[in-house]
Amino acid sequence: MNKNSETIDQIILGHAATKERQKVALVISKVFDSPKFPGGDTTAQNVADRIFVLAEAGKLESTGNLRRWRKSTVRLPQ
Prior knowledge:
By secondary structure, this protein is mostly helical. The chain has 3 helices and 3 strands. Helix 2 (24-33) crosses helix 3.
């Protein structure tokens, strides 16, 4: 994992720290709007891939197919 991935992971987890589940598309948008976003050649798909990795690692709780950004949700494990 590179430094950009670590930064993106921190931003994702920060935005997922709510009681409510959030659509993956919304979390991706919030990552890009974050002042800490590293920019560069990072795409929305790169951010979605990080969300998938975090969910697989148990750091995010998800519902739905994470590949369908507008139909799936995430939050921190309760």
